[in-house]
């Protein structure tokens, strides 16, 4: 399938996969090389999670840059991404932090502010504790519930970190969204008869997304990348943007390929960029495995 645009000087992809509904292109490259080669306004959605500069041990990237160098680099890739975005496009930017360095996510968001408008702030909830009495009788809980996975923090100063930010940026702050694309049913179905907007028994999910990690048996085997998100994160982002308006999606920091997996399952054109050959190979293998099992 040809690209839905005419590329300026795109390098040849490392791997290309035809899904029957879309084309997935994988690049073993620095993201700036590919982003700057794209014609302006040609990418509908970017879903990505860049390095956070928190000292994570990647294979090929130094995650311990001086803060000013890291933010200069952030400014460069976001500027290039903003240029590549459609005027009604979306950039979903997942950024985390750590208790001893809590400003990272906000500094990245402030850097993006130079080039894009912050349209929504979404909280990706990885683990949550729900008290039985707070859930209400309709939930039918027989005890308090703790669901999801988190990394315990041994500290007398900090609480466990159970969430990350997903900042939704757009060129003008006015990108239309398919709010019910990831909608949820009303718990009180009497709303259906009271509100015209509730006729489909589906409401906007809002800006808190509970998406736990899958339980893994071996960190090295099942999640060999030190910082990745579940495929449901990019799936939700793409659906919220509106699948019928996605000409092509992109992840400039592909990692293990969760965004590619989501694009493959949704049948959309996709570009994934990863600087590390080992991670890229894992991403391609994961994507092919999903397509085989579809």
Structural class: alpha/beta
CATH class: Alpha Beta
Based on CA inertia axes, which overall geometry fits?
Answer: globular
Oligomer: single chain
Folded structure, characterized:
This protein has 294 residues and is of the alpha/beta class. 28% of the residues lie in helices and 21% in strands. The protein contains 9 helices and 11 strands. Strand 1 (15-18) and strand 2 (23-28) form a beta hairpin. The longest helix is centred in the N-terminal third of the chain and has 18 residues, at 67-84.
Write the layout of secondary structure elements.
Elements: E1 15-18, E2 23-28, H1 31-37, E3 43-48, H2 67-84, E4 85-95, H3 104-112, E5 117-125, E6 127-130, H4 132-135, E7 145-148, E8 163-170, H5 191-194, E9 208-210, H6 219-222, H7 232-241, E10 249-251, H8 258-266, E11 270-274, H9 277-293
Parallel strand pairs: 2-11, 3-4, 3-10, 5-9, 10-11
Antiparallel strand pairs: 1-2, 4-8, 5-8, 6-7
Provide a compact summary of the structure:
The chain is built from nine helices and eleven strands.
Keywords summarizing the entry:
alpha/beta, 9-stranded mixed sheet, two-stranded antiparallel sheet, 11 strands, Rossmann fold
């Amino acid at each position: 399938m040809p690209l839905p645009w005419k590329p300026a000087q795109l390098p040849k992809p490392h791997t290309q996969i035809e899904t029957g509904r879309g084309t997935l292109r994988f690049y073993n490259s620095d993201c700036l090389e590919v982003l700057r080669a794209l014609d302006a306004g040609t990418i509908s959605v970017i879903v990505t999670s860049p390095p956070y500069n928190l000292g994570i041990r990647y294979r090929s990237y130094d995650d311990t840059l001086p803060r000013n160098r890291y933010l200069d680099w952030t400014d460069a890739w976001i500027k290039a991404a903003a240029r590549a975005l459609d005027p009604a496009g979306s950039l979903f930017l997942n950024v985390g932090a750590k208790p001893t360095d809590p400003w990272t996510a906000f500094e990245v968001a402030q850097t993006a502010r130079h080039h894009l408008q912050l349209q929504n702030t979404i909280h990706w909830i990885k683990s949550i504790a729900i008290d039985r009495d707070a859930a209400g009788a309709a939930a039918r809980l027989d005890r308090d519930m703790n669901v999801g996975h988190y990394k315990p923090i041994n500290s007398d100063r900090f609480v466990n970190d159970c969430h990350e930010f997903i900042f939704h940026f757009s060129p003008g702050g006015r990108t239309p969204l398919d709010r019910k694309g990831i909608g949820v049913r009303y718990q009180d179905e009497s709303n259906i008869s009271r509100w015209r907007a509730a006729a489909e028994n589906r409401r906007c999910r809002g800006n808190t997304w509970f998406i736990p990690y899958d339980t893994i048996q071996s960190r090295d085997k099942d999640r060999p990348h030190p910082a990745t998100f579940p495929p449901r994160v990019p799936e939700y982002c793409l659906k919220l943007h509106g699948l019928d308006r996605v000409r092509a999606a992109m992840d400039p920091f592909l990692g293990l390929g969760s965004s590619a997996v989501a694009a493959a399952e949704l049948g959309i054109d996709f570009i994934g960029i990863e600087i590390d050959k080992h991670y890229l190979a894992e991403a391609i293998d994961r994507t092919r495995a999903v397509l085989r099992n579809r």
